[in-house]
Amino acid sequence: MTVSSPDPKATNTDLNDREVVLSVDELSKRYGRLQAVDAVSFEVRRGETFGLLGPNGAGKTTTLEMIEGLRQPDSGRITLLGLDALRQRRRTQERIGVQLQSQALWPELTVEETLLAFRSLFRTRVPIGPLIDRLSLEDKRRSLVKSLSGGQKQRLSIATALVNKPDVVFLDEPTTGLDPQARRSFWDLIKALEETVIITTHYMEEAEVLCDRVAIMDNGRIIAIDTPRNLILRFASDSTVECEFVRPIEPPTLAALPGVREVRAENDGVLLFTNDASSTLNALMDLCTEAGLPIPRLNVRSATLEDVFIALTGRRLRD
User: Fold this and answer.
1) How do the domains of the chain map onto residue ranges?
2) Global pTM?
């Protein structure tokens, strides 16, 4: 048996007292029969790291692109830094930084040349040297982009979003394609950003570590929004027991175990959502011993945003 638990990021207690820098109201976008974004509304406050969490196709990127001014919404309002982002697009774009999911970097330019090229697009410009140091690219300053590793390219991509000293930084799936070690290193970089950060991700652990608040999206809609910890307390049990049996056990029998709040079948196993993991485990072991039933797989972990998504939709985030 293994026991694991996430290390959630502490939330800011004074968040509600901060200025609202982004207000999205009833934002919608349709492509033919597909309602990609469906009446999405939320607010982001200054200094906050706000996450849009959901599976691929949930509408996260489309929502971000409409806020950034890269895609025109069918309806809704966007107020960004006190400006109407739809009518004053150029003024808002001067004050934001954008790291796209598929960032276009010129392979034959050096790191320094790349940043100078991006910086030339804006009126407000930061010195390149300190920015290169900030993103830990000092040893690669004169290296060609094509020679960089995946993690180095991602750091350069974020650097391009900071060349204009933005008030708000948008990061679209910034760690996709990175190995677990590089991803965790990247988290430290994002946590060190002083700007307001809005990030999309389909990695639930990433959202728990990085975000002050999370909006969970599915099928174009926001289905829950709060701090990661509050979402877990509200929609998930304290712990999740993942188990597999050599012969099926009827769900009502498992549901009757002490502490069990919900039972869900999953692939070849069963998830037991419990508010008393110790009592549930003891009763489960007694049940299986009496029935002469081995347990090939048993894992206990603290509840996560993955469990919140399961509770809200009946499926895993990446199914």
Assistant:
1) 2-6+16-227, 236-313
2) 0.83
